Amino acid sequence: MLTQNKKLSLTGRVILGMVLGIFTGFIIRSLFSETSWVHEYLVNGLFDVGGAIFIASLKMLVVPLVFISLVCGTSSLSDISTLGRLGGKTILFYLTTTAVAITLALTMGSLFQPGAGADLSAATSFSASEAPSLGEVIVGMFPTNPINSMAQGNTLQIIVFAILFGIAISAAGSAGERIAAIFTDLNEVIMKLVALLMHIAPFGVFFLMAKLFTNIGLDAIFNLLGYFLVLSATLLIHGLVVYSLMLKVFSGLSPKIFLKKMEDAIMFAFSTASSNATIPVTMETATKRLGVSNQIASFTIPLGATINMDGTAIMQGVATAFIAQAFNIDLTMSDYMAVIVTATLASIGTAGVPGVGLIMLAMVLNQVGLPVEGIAIIMGVDRLLDMIRTAVNITGDSCVTCIVAKSENAMDIACFNDPQAGAKVEEVHLNPHPKASHID
Ligand code: ASP
Known about the structure:
By secondary structure, this protein is mostly helical. It contains 19 helices and no strands. The protein has one domain (10-424): Proton glutamate symport protein.
């Protein structure tokens, strides 16, 4: 049996891991920067290995979790037309929030002019790929080989296959019922795996933070302070104000409770900088803490991790304004529109993994004819910003999930309002015969 610290909640322990990790990183940076054994055995040894194992274990759960829970969710839908309505609503909200995010970012970027007089000496060459067309994005969602989609972790293709598989299960009569029962059991098992992982999370977060803050180039932040501050402020406004307003207006739910319950998922997103790797925790938060039914969350959360990246879109907006100002190029209204459309499309076609925002930015800059070299200037501060924008990305996914669930009457409001719901880390009993005493 895994014992747990009775005094601190999971959130408390993850915060502790994070703070201690950041602190350890700074200590090593300032006191042991020349001590080779510290770097060799601690930073590039223990911290590196521990952090990598933690990320790998999170990622390991994503494909089976997305597939199994979505098959469960779709196969239990009583009416297939629900699926179309659910999908339409979710995608509409996702696209709208992304467009609002990037518009807010462009406005903040033009208002505060972070790039005026910026130092361009870091500019080197940077190659950009083309933004995918809408047609390519849509065709790319359909798998030719579902096993291959799973092997590659292509979330959109897995979602499409899982939905079709789930629909077929619900149409297959008693054979379908037997398979659905297996998937329900599998879902229980995979959620136990998530719970198991939560127990090692504080250590994982500690290792990731300690390594990162030993190596992170904070001097770069001072050189790009304007960009860093405008971008962080816009991310905070969107994450705290825009989502709170949306939640209140469209669902009547309390933004305060919502944000409080998002803490764990936010910290996971912050320390991994990957919405994809955070999917298990976002799903657990949505279903166990926010009271969203699995039918909704199993669809909206993985979909959101791939197509809804508001934080990343904000970075595109502020960075575009910054680079245009730094190179003294005026953007026209139609350029602004092109930025909004390209950034929204690019966010649909790319997965939520660390650093992908920079690749998308290259597409956006290309589209409006701005020098892609500008990316080299902001690259130095991107890691920390990536962590913040990933936290915004998954908060947006969860906010839309709550709105859609509430509108579909698929939400346990008592659970949402109960501060303790799902707060305790589930105990994992490693006992092969838990019900032995009931069998005679
Ligand atoms: N790291 C972000 C995510 O996974 C994407 C990005 O902005 O680079 O959501």
